[in-house]
Design a protein that fits this description.
Two copies of one chain form a homodimer.
Chain A: H1 3-15, H2 18-25, H3 29-43, E1 48-50, E2 55-57, H4 59-83, E3 91-97, H5 99-106, H6 110-116, E4 120-126, E5 140-145, E6 152-159, E7 162-167, H7 168-173, E8 189-190, E9 199-203, E10 210-213, E11 218-219, H8 223-231, E12 237-240, H9 245-250, E13 253-255, E14 261-263, E15 270-276, H10 283-296
Parallel strand pairs in A: 3-4, 3-5, 8-11
Antiparallel strand pairs in A: 1-2, 5-15, 6-15, 7-12, 7-13, 9-10, 9-14
Chain A binds a DNA duplex through helix 3.
Chain lengths: ~300, ~300
DNA sequence: TTAATGCTTGTGATAAATGCTATTAATACC
DNA sequence: GGTATTAATAGCATTTATCACAAGCATTAA
């Protein structure tokens, strides 16, 4: 009996089928079928009630799952604790974040990371869709926005502020935009996400919040691409500070309302570092968290 | 990584060497060497510090052992709980007792047992030497004598009384043995165990205990063989009631002092059923305990 | 220095696991 | 009720792992 088979069994219960489990583990479905059959033979019990269209664990299968699932996790944990004893931290850490943030802020750090931890591998998964941390075996995620819920540890990396920016070139063509309400008449570039494409909120000092309805010809789901169109002078866009630092300094982008706080969702957005809430974190994960915290603190 | 390899690792830590572990698991030492080497490669750490004359787990090995040992036990437990769900109890139960008791009292029950539980196998280990329950993986032991100590559950099956017996034929040749003290001058058959071969203790009602020094030409370690010599008329012997019931009834053996309680060790001896003190006992073990309790209660 | 012990490695035969492909079976949809 | 679809499984060929025996090698006790 192999631990890989037990993992596969657990995965099969969670996936609800041999084919799905096979896909997750990147092996042939027939192999799953055979391994589970072997396990059933060992235990002398059928673990799944299966036909082509129905698939469910038997009572015995469910019971076995309840016992085995935590055990193989602990087995992994034991192996990780042993790895932690090694002279050099080693292994692979899977990090998930959005495409834009990954490209703009994480990728530039990886050279330093590799130099510091030569035996540590990073598997960087950039995805703008919601990700299932558990199934995808994500060790660390960085998410931007309001404080996320869920059962994991949240560490606030730095606050994220948004700015309405336009290219210098655009502003030359355009008469001066004196007040946020003027945006309603401009061709703004928008995100397709909830809030972003309907109205932007402005706040200055103790003044009353201003809500401006936004329209425009372009809706772009990727922040890098969105910034690109703003740079081309298509129109103003709402961009996060971490992705426009350089452009503001060199003057290719201009913050239209530097006195205002602006947001399309919530004024209290930040970059959050998330990881599983466990009593034991492998050293490789702890070190990576530490590294990201340290490097990204520079954005504050 | 196979669970068998992990078991082997645990066994190796306990045995203190590859060769010893190999002997316990009945496999080739080279196989142990290779499997542990593979495990070390997986973990990226050396688990044992080994030279030809020194063998000890490394720090990592010991740590891994602490984690893994309970886990593989729980894995076994999980499998057993699944087996318990089967329609018929199945598996193998390992029972240990002394040679004489096994032959006289347990073996005769096994026909009934097999009929009642057709899928249950008994592995009956008869041994007069002390046995390491844990290492020998004994599920149930029956021990005769004073209440045994140790970390397991004790169930008292029935009291054991000893009787000084001689064959009918011997008594014909011999003048009547009126009083226990007369034994000191007879050729008694003795056990080699502590107490048995030096003196026997007699007690009647509230009278003062009589201690009689015993001598004789024969010392025999096996109770069945000892009974055989008594039956041949060699001389009197101290025999437990459970092994002479039939002979007393048919008159081939005679209890010389039916009024006395006799012992070579302790008046409070009994037959004890012992099993591991765990929160979970496999069904097969529970049923066998139940069976033995039920069947052996008839001796009371 | 020698003998003995016990881990390790080599080797050829045997057994097992895997992926691909084909088959079979069950069910949903027309 | 027939048919298309989907998922499990069986066959087969290939690769991979395992095993037992033998030989090697290092270490230590006498």
């Amino acid at each position: 009996m192999k631990t890989a088979t037990l993992k596969l069994f657990v995965e099969t219960v969670r996936s609800g089928g041999f084919t799905a489990a096979a896909a997750r583990q990147q092996i042939d479905p027939s192999s799953v079928s055979r391994q589970i059959a072997a396990l059933e033979k060992d235990l002398g019990v059928r673990l799944f009630e299966r036909s082509t269209r129905r698939f469910q664990p038997t009572e015995a299968g469910l019971l076995y799952y309840e016992f085995v699932a935590p055990l193989i996790e602990e087995l992994d944990e034991a192996a990780n604790r042993i790895l932690d004893l090694r002279a050099n931290p080693s292994g692979t850490v899977r990090v998930s974040t959005s495409v834009a943030f990954g490209v703009a802020c994480i990728a530039p750090l990886l050279g330093t990371f590799c130099a510091r931890y030569p035996d540590l591998n990073i598997d960087l998964r950039l995805d703008d869709q919601p990700v299932d941390f558990v199934h995808e075996k994500i060790d660390i995620a960085i998410r931007l926005g309001p404080a996320p819920g869920g059962d994991f540890v949240r560490a606030r990396l730095f606050p994220v502020r948004h700015h309405v920016c336009a290219s210098a070139e655009f502003l030359e063509r355009q008469q001066r935009v004196e007040h946020p309400t003027a945006l309603a008449k401009l061709n703004c570039v928008r995100f397709p996400f909830k809030g972003f494409n309907t109205q932007w909120h402005f706040r200055r000092g103790r003044e009353k919040e201003i809500i401006v309805p936004i329209t425009g010809k372009l809706i772009i789901s990727n922040a890098i691409a969105l910034k690109s169109t703003v740079l081309q002078g298509v129109g103003p866009g709402l961009l996060a500070d971490w992705m426009i630092k350089k452009e503001l300094e060199e003057g290719s982008l201009v913050d239209l309302f530097p006195d205002y706080q602006v947001t399309a969702t919530d004024f209290e957005t930040a970059a959050w570092l998330l990881y599983a809430s466990r009593n034991y974190l492998p050293l490789k994960v702890r070190l990576t968290i530490e590294f990201l915290n340290e490097q990204l603190a520079k954005f504050t």
